[in-house]
Design brief:
- This protein is of the alpha+beta class and about 400 residues long.
- It starts with 8 loop residues before the first helix and ends with a strand.
- Helix 2 packs antiparallel against helix 3.
- It is rod-shaped and about 195 Å long.
- Helix content is about 55%, strand content about 20%.
- The protein has a 4-stranded mixed beta sheet with strand order 4-6-7-5. A 4-stranded antiparallel beta sheet has the order 8-9-10-11.
- The longest helix has about 120 residues.
- Among the domains are: about 190 residues, 3-Layer(aba) Sandwich (Pathogenesis-related Protein p14a); about 70 residues, no CATH class.
- It contains 9 helices and 11 strands.
């Protein structure tokens, strides 16, 4: 609800007459108000503002006890003169720098409209936004220890009432209430106050209501367009995000494939290089083996050739023409013993401590033999000589 005042003089007078007819009816209303206090701040759920009070909830509870002691009274009679007096007081207060007027000015205003008999009482409220709130403020009298604002509502002998409202630059609203026993209106003996909205006001209100409705519809349209635009923009952003993610995924997949291809090419190249190296190594090994084989064959052939040469040489050398020559050659061959050499320990037969080896060539029965002579010293200290012959022809 807006904080614009909805209170009206006629509604305030009607609320006061309801209060006088049934004081207990306002107890529940004040109890409800008292529930909305936080320390000394009153926050009413139907108003968009916080009201800073002077005493907090205490005068509200006091007003409840006050109403319990009150009995019903006759309704006030609305006085045109009193309403005009209340309006002039409102205007004077608004014009005043202090927000107050003295008793002399009050007297002048009253005298200007007529005269009263019996009792006269007045009250003021600042900051009331609804007719009900204005009446409750009069009953509560926050900040007024004597609760003097209640007197115009229930004072003995008070029969006539006048109410006026105005705008206050600090408290937003001001309400002045005046009551008296009787009042003689010097300008209008009937002193009848009629509250009504003329056709102009009705039309004005209608136009204002239509304007409010149009503004509301326009605001709804703008909000709708804004929401639609936000939805479209959101969808656009979402599509862009999805497209971006798709492109990034494609790029990542493409880079992955390229990387895998490079890795695969590297792997294949490495395998090919290793295969070539292996092949080269195999070829080199084969070449070495072939070379060794050829060298071995050459060595064997050379050795064979040398042996053949030796055989031929021996045959030609030792071939005898007569027996005397053969005997001489045999004798010479028998005497030809090569020097002995020591056999290394790792080549010694089992049970032999040391051994020397020598060889010679002898001819027996027209054939040449190579004789090996072994001189052995056994482990037990005994000595042995062994001979081994090998036919050379």
């Amino acid at each position: 609800m807006s904080t614009k005042s909805t209170a009206k003089p006629k509604e305030i007078i009607d609320e006061i007459n309801k209060l006088r007819a049934d004081p207990n009816s306002y107890i529940k209303k004040i109890e409800e108000y008292s529930q909305y206090f936080t320390n000394k701040v009153l926050k009413l759920p139907n108003l968009n503002l916080k009201i800073q009070t002077q005493e907090g909830v205490t005068p509200y509870l006091d007003a409840i006890e006050y109403l319990k002691t009150k009995e019903k009274k006759n309704p006030f009679i609305t006085s045109k003169a009193l309403c005009e007096i209340a309006q002039e007081v409102v205007d004077k207060i608004i014009e005043s720098e202090t927000g107050e007027i003295d008793e002399e000015i009050y007297g002048q205003i009253i005298d200007k409209h007529g005269s009263f008999t019996g009792r006269f009482a007045r009250a003021m409220d600042f900051g009331g936004f609804t007719s009900e709130q204005v009446v409750i403020n009069f009953l509560v009298c926050d900040g007024d220890e004597d609760r003097t604002q209640r007197e115009p509502l229930f004072g003995e002998g008070l029969n006539k009432i006048g109410v006026a409202l105005g705008y206050h630059n600090v408290y937003s609203t001001i309400c002045v209430l005046v009551t008296c026993t009787e009042f003689k209106n010097s300008k209008d003996p009937d002193d009848i106050m009629v509250f009504k909205d003329d056709d102009e006001n009705k039309e004005k209100k209608k136009l204002e209501q239509e304007k409010i409705e149009q503004e509301k519809l326009e605001q709804e349209r703008i909000e709708k367009e804004k929401l639609e635009q936000e939805r479209i923009e959101k969808e656009k952003l979402e599509k862009e995000r999805i497209e971006k993610e798709r492109l990034e995924k494609e790029k990542a997949l493409r880079e992955k494939k390229e990387k895998e291809k490079i890795e695969d090419d590297k792997k294949k190249e490495e395998e090919r290089r290793k295969e070539e190296e292996k092949k080269k190594e195999e070829e080199r090994r084969k070449e070495e083996e072939n070379k060794k084989e050829e060298e071995k064959k050459k060595e064997e052939e050379k050795k064979k050739e040398e042996e053949e040469k030796k055989k031929k040489l021996a045959k030609s050398k030792f071939k005898s023409v007569n027996n005397d020559t053969e005997v001489k050659n045999i004798f010479k061959l028998k005497k030809k013993i090569l020097s002995f050499e020591a056999v290394p320990k790792e080549q010694l037969p089992e049970g032999v401590a040391s051994m020397t080896r020598g060889d010679t060539i002898v001819i027996e029965g027209g054939k040449r033999y190579k004789k090996y002579i072994y001189n052995k010293v056994m482990l037990d200290g005994t000595k042995r000589t062994e001979e081994v012959k090998e036919c050379l022809d």
